[in-house]
Every structure is written in C-alpha cells, then in structure tokens.
C-alpha cells in the first residue's frame, strides 16, 4: 500500500547545501562578495594623478621596488616638473611614453629642480623575506611569479632577486643605453602584449590603476620607435600631482583588492578555468600578466 | 736589434674572421639579410583588404585551420556583405570587433546572402603530420608551440590537436554562447595582452598583417564589454574585399618571412636574448605571442 511520504527528510537540505560545491560565480560576483577587510585604500603618498588633456590617469607607485626613483618622481610632481610636458611616443603593441620633448637638448631641457639628476638602476630587489602571494603555474620567463603589494612580480630565488614584471599597464622609467640614466622624468606605460624581455633591464616604478583605456588608444607615432614626428601630434600633460599633495576633497579614492585575500585566490582560480559556459575548453593555467588586481572607487567612509 | 716585422701574419686574418662568432645583429639587420627565397608572397586568395574610414587593414586568412569559416568570409566579402557595417566594440586590452550592429534584430539584420547561416565550430585541427616550426621554450598554456603557415600555433600531441593561439593581431569569428554560432559575419582582432584562455573556445580565422596601429588605437567603447553605446561612435567599414577579387593593380602586395627559414630561427634566437646592449639581462626565453612573423611590402618583380 502507498503511504504518504514523511517530510522529515527536508531537514537535511541545509546540510546538503553546506557540503555542495558552490555554484560557479562570475568574476564580478566573486569581487562583489569580497569583505571590506579584503580591500585596501590606495595610499595617497603612493598615488599619482595625471591630467592629460582632460583625461585622468591614476598610477600607483612601487616604493618597495624602486625607492629612489619613486622618491624622485614624488619630488618632480611636487615641484610641478611634469606640467606642460607631453606624451612624446606611442609605439603600437609596446609603450606610451611621456616626458620632456626637449630632454636631449641641454639648452632647452627643463631643469629637474630639486630632484636627483642621476640615480642608480633599480632593476630588482632581494627576494628573501618578501611577502609573495604566489601563482600556481610555471611562468617560463622566471622560476616563480606572484603578487607583492598588488604588483605582478617574478622571483629568482637562487639569485635572491625579485622584480616587477612588464605586464599591461606597468609603468617604467625610460632610460638611454646607460643603465643608470633613468631619473623618473621620462615614464612609459605598457600598452600591448607584455614585453617581458624588458624585465630586469629597466627600473619599474608603478602601475596604471585608471586611464589605460585612454593611454592605450592614443594615435601611434609614425617616427622611429613610435616617436611623434610633429610637436602638434603630442598630447599635453596638463598636470601631474601626488595625491598627498592635493587637498583631501580633490583626491580620487581608490581601493585595491588585497592579493593575500581569499577573494583574490578565488579570482585566480576563475581565471585559470573560466566557469562561464562560453569556455568549453578550460586552460587550467594562467600567468602573472593575464590576471589583474581589481581596483574600485572607494565607498564613502561613514 | 730591432728587425722590421714581417707582414706575413696578416694572411691569417681571413681564417680568424671565419672562426670568430658573428657580430650581434639587430632584428632589422637579420631581416635585411634574408634571401629572396626566405620570403613568400601573400596569396591574394587568402588576403582581405578592409577599408575603415580611409584606413587600410590587411588580414591573412587561415584556411588550413578554419576552412569553412574562411570560405564563408570570402563569400561574404565577394558579395560585399561587410560594406557599410561598422566597428561595434572596442574593449581595452582585449578586442576590436566589427560586424552588423543590427545582427541581433531579425527585422533589421543584414542577410548573409549566399554565405552559410550556420557553421560547425572550427576550434582545432588534427596535429598529426602538421609542418610545425617549433619554438624552443615551454609555453604553459600548451605542451608545444610554434608556427604553421606563418600563424602562431599551439599543439597538444597527446590529443592530436593544434590550434592558432590568441596573440596580438589574431582575428577570430565572434560567437554567442552556442559553439556553432559563428559564421564569420562578426570578426574581432586581439589588441592587448594575449587572452590565451580563448584558445580552443572560438574559431580563429586569420591575422592582421597591416593596420593594427589603427585597430588598436580606436576609442574604447563605454558600454558593457566595450560595445559602443551610440551609433555615431562606431567606425564605418567602407569596404572589405578579397585581394583576388580586386584588379591586380589595386592589390597590395605583401611578403611574409617563411618560418621554416634560417632567418626566422635567427630572429627567434635574437628575441630570446636581445643582442642590443640595452638589454643587460638576457631572458633566454620567449613565447609564441612575443615573436611576430615579419611582413614587408613586396619588391616589384622584374
């Protein structure tokens, strides 16, 4: 005979749900679920705000990796050195570069003021003791990769060296052939496939947090190495300011996801194997230039 | 007593030069020294000429990897399907995409004419017997990489699969969630860090040989996934023609370096360890998206 099925079994549903794997979540859903403690505020003492013809670009500086260059750049910004200079070079699939168009002409070059005219190269730092949030996959360009202070980093433990990798949006200090010829007066951002061959050959000073969609879409220069051939092709730098030098009300307040967080690890896992149904083949792999640390406008503090 | 030194020792100089390592040569010098036989002409039957608002873009199609999509694209070009359509999407560090802005509206969508409205996915081909010019370094994303017909390719020998890798300038056929929803009517080019996670998830149909400096510098769309929000933001496609459909005098004639050539191997070696003195740290590594096959305007045939 048939009996009415008891509903007591419903009591186990919460336990079942608890033990079921989570539904796949999109990167946006993973980020939205991050706790407030998993975000950090951009330190105004390490944030640069560039105004280029009305477009804002925000850069986070990397004092741990290039302390002397970063100090010089802060000094240059503080003294308004960059104001009125220009984007001088845009080479497709490589770099957008800005600085003093007359830098090579001693008669016309702008004075660096109180900033150092010469600095040692800062191509790498010691790796020992560095708090690295490691990526799981091999890199090819370096024995180990991960993130430090939100920056993509490669590490050669055997030689005790760590350096920021030339990924999309990374900012470096232009130099001539002498390795100690960069000062931070001339800067570039990577706008294409990561040119990792530059790693440990040039001093990296930071990363663009906002404004790549402008820097990467500038008209390419038609001269050698993408330099503009006519002055009128250059985009003028209206101003460059350290956020700490601005009145607090004028500072853009950004937050970055901490790479020591569980949310970051979930994002890296998602990038290795996209859960989106569009991806029928899962790569089961990613690399240090194919994952980017999320940045958001800070929510007001109450 | 002093005697006059004999000059007979000079006779050994040619032998010394012969056994000395070659002077490091720049990539431009390596390419300039290539023999005529190391170059191949772009086959007009696999070349597409796009005119976008007066800018020329030249694409080489990849019939070995996507025969059905390539045949469809040729048919669409032959019937002038693309003329008057537009660049509809530019997502920073990802893709520039063009096609019919009304494709999703059956009432307004342009007819595909004699082209197939449905095609199977062509995500990979069989690897067995494929003439691959291998790269020496490991890849991470795939067991083996190299070049086939001038295209960057990854290979999984265990599963007998080979596919074109999503490097800068690679052209693919946009699709919706169904894997067989691409026809070649909607195309995209990669404009940033190579999104290798797309490999084997979408049908790749070719590579941009000329015009990336225009496609990659278009204003980024501000809508979801970089779609333009206003029709007037779109760049109009004046025309798309198969080179073979053009009168011979109107065909741009390009040449590509053969990847089975000694010159190509020398270029790869140079990319792995730049001989330029600027590079004080040699990577001793490169990958399939960090080397690009040289393209030049063909010298007139006498």
Main attributes?
alpha+beta, homodimer, 8-stranded antiparallel beta barrel, disordered N terminus, 16 strands, 302 residues
Structural features, described:
The structure is a homodimer of 302-residue chains. Chain A is 13% helix and 25% strand. With 302 residues, chain A is of the alpha+beta class. An eight-stranded antiparallel beta barrel of chain A has the order 2-3-13-11-12-5-4-14. A five-stranded antiparallel sheet of chain A has the order 6-10-9-8-7, with no helix packed on it. A three-stranded antiparallel sheet of chain A has the order 1-15-16, with no helix packed on it. The radius of gyration of chain A is 23 Å and the shape is globular. The model of chain A is unreliable at 1-5 and 14-22 (pLDDT under 50). The A-B interface holds A 90, 92-93, 123, 137-141, 167-169, 177, 179, 191-197, 199-201, 212-213, 216-220, 271, 274, 277-281, 283, 285-287, 289-290 and B 90, 92-93, 123, 137-141, 167-169, 177, 179, 191-197, 199-201, 212-213, 216-220, 271, 274, 277-281, 283, 285-287, 289-290.
Beta strand % of chain A:
25-35%
Give the low-pLDDT segments of chain A. Answer: 1-5, 14-22
Total count of helical runs of at least 4 residues of chain A? 5
Strand tally of chain A, please? 16
Structural class by helix and strand composition of chain A: alpha+beta
Distance from N terminus to C terminus of chain A (CA atoms, Å) equals 65 Å
The sequence of SSEs of chain A as H and E is HHEEEHEEEEEEEEEEHEEHE
| Sheet with most strands of chain A | 8 strands, antiparallel, barrel
- Mean pLDDT figure of chain A: 93
Oligomer: homodimer
Spatial order of the strands in the main sheet of chain A? 2-3-13-11-12-5-4-14
The largest inter-chain interface, given as chain pair and residues per side, is: A-B, 44 and 44 residues
Q: Describe the global form of chain A.
A: globular
- The residue fraction in helices of chain A comes out at 10-25%
């Amino acid at each position: 005979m048939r009996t009415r099925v008891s509903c007591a079994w419903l009591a186990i549903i919460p336990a079942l749900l608890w033990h079921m794997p989570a539904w796949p979540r999109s990167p946006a859903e993973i980020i939205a679920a991050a706790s407030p403690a998993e975000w950090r505020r951009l330190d105004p003492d390490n944030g640069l705000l560039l105004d280029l013809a009305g477009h804002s670009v925000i850069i986070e500086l990397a004092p741990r990796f290039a302390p002397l260059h970063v100090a010089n750049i802060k000094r240059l910004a503080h003294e308004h050195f960059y104001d009125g200079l220009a984007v001088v070079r845009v080479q497709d699939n490589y770099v957008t570069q800005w600085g003093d168009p007359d830098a090579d002409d001693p008669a016309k070059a702008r004075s660096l003021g109180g900033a150092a005219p010469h600095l040692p190269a800062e191509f790498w730092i010691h790796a020992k003791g560095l708090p690295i949030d490691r990526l799981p996959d091999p890199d090819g360009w370096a024995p180990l990769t991960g993130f430090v202070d939100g920056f993509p980093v490669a590490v050669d433990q055997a030689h005790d060296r760590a350096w920021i990798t030339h990924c999309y949006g990374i900012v470096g200090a232009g130099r001539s052939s002498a390795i100690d010829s960069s000062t931070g007066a001339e800067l570039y951002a990577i706008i294409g496939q990561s040119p990792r061959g530059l790693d440990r050959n040039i001093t990296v000073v930071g990363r663009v947090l906002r404004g790549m969609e402008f820097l990467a879409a500038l008209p390419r220069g038609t001269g050698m190495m993408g330099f503009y051939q006519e002055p009128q092709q250059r985009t003028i730098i209206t101003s460059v300011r350290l956020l700490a030098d601005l009145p607090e009300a004028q500072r853009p307040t950004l937050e970055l996801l901490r790479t020591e967080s569980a949310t970051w690890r979930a994002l890296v896992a998602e990038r290795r194997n996209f859960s989106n149904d569009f991806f029928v083949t899962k790569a089961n792999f990613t690399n240090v230039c194919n994952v980017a640390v999320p940045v958001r406008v800070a929510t007001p503090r109450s």
